[in-house]
Amino acid sequence: MHPTSEQLDQVKSIGPATLGELQVWPPVVLAPMAGITNAAFRKLCRRFGAGLYVSEMATARGIVEDWPRSREISHFAPDEDPRSIQLYATDPYWTGRAVEKLVSQSRVDHIDFNFGCPVRKITRKGGGAALPLRRALFREILAEAVRHAGSVPITVKMRLGVDQNLQTFLEAGRIAEGEGVSAIALHARTAAQLYSGKADWARIGELKAAVTSIPVLGNGDIFEAGDALAMIRETGCDGVVIGRGCLGRPWLFRELADLFDGRSPLPVPTLGGVADVMVEHARLLVDLRGEDLAMPEFRKHASWYVLGYAVSPAERQRLCRVQSLQELEDLASGLDPELEVDPNVLKAPRGKAGNPQKVALPEGFLANRDDPMPIGAEPLAAFSGG
Questions:
Q1: What's the rounded Cα separation, in Å, for the pair 47 and 282?
Q2: pLDDT band at 385 (very low <50, low <70, confident <90, very high)
Q3: What is the dihedral of CA 29, 35, 38, 44, to 10 degrees?
Q4: Across residues 273-301, what is the average pLDDT?
Q5: Which of the following is catalytic: 117, 237, 246, 320?
Q6: Banded model confidence at residue 375, pLDDT cuts 50, 70, 90
């Protein structure tokens, strides 16, 4: 894609996303995605372009009590800079202790809080996208996070609300700003939408108009570099958060870096280039998790990498059933290296989609929205970045 003169003029007026003392350029953030944004994928994406690359979601209590999964998520490679982690929290006590532990041990440079997860087993316990409905509890959690963070920036990722009738993003945004968070990212869908339909970018503009002292980042339906500039132009947001658009396409971060720096992005790679990246990704994942765990986990990535290329059904099936790194290398070497992507597929859905849902909430959850008491216990595992 070659930038138009209008896009190049627009780029000149865009600055870094300022998260406390952290300057993010280009103003691009990798959205936390459970089972996706592990250290291997972050390293691969960072090779293509600068930005902020956030870990999978860990629970605050898991960090404090050193649960194995939380320990794995909060481990960063020595050369990973900045180190960014997303936390899930429903209790101010565990929130404060988790932030204090991460900061006092100098383990992170940025902490993001997930108030956007739409998964039923999270919302029915009052967490994720449901929690901002309890505005007093929401305020207490953020106050404890900021109080223990010192100079480490605290940010919030959220959705429009539970559904069209229970939208919380403006009130939650003002609360977060008032409690001293460094930035807010808005996925412009409700929890009821899951990942279906179109993101309502106009709501990002509404939040930007309401929250004026800290950056507002937009999330939802960014599949090409030009989409990021379109979102900034339409909403006035200060940066973008990339989720499903980079699945099987880590070079999207190179396209974004080129465009924000005023350069023409390189063409989408042919299948030969895709095969090389695919193998590199698998090797990084094997180094991280061992071959027995890594290869079954990699299969979903294989299907995303070849999306839009005229790969035969038999080749596609073999890639999605790959058992070993050697098998993947053999399969990748047999793909036609000259095949080009179908440009009409670049915006095709990747990863989660699903139909709209009725969001589950705890019984009596809406009876007293100013009750600061925590609801239930934090779960043992992470589910979604929202």
A1: 15
A2: low
A3: -70
A4: 97
A5: 117
A6: confident
Determine the residue type at 150. G
Q: Where are the domains of the chain?
A: 19-260, 271-338
Using alpha carbons only, what angle is made at residue 37 by residues 32 and 40, rounded to the nearest 5 degrees? Answer: 155
Token digits for 123? 């919302």
Cβ-Cβ contacts under 8 Å for 89 (sequence gap 6 or more): 59, 60, 95, 98, 113, 141, 145, 378
CATH number of the domain located at residue range(s) 19-260 in this protein: 3.20.20.70
Instruction: Indicate the helix (H) or strand (E) that contains 161.
Output: strand 161-163
For residues 56 and 252, give the distance between their C-alpha atoms in angstroms, rounded to a whole number: 19
Q: Each residue of 144-170: pLDDT tens digit?
A: 999 999 999 999 999 999 999 999 999
Q: Does the annotation count 45 as an active-site position?
A: no
CA distance 86 to 130: 17
- Residue-wise pLDDT for 24-77, tens only, equals 999 999 999 999 999 999 999 999 999 999 999 999 999 999 999 999 999 898
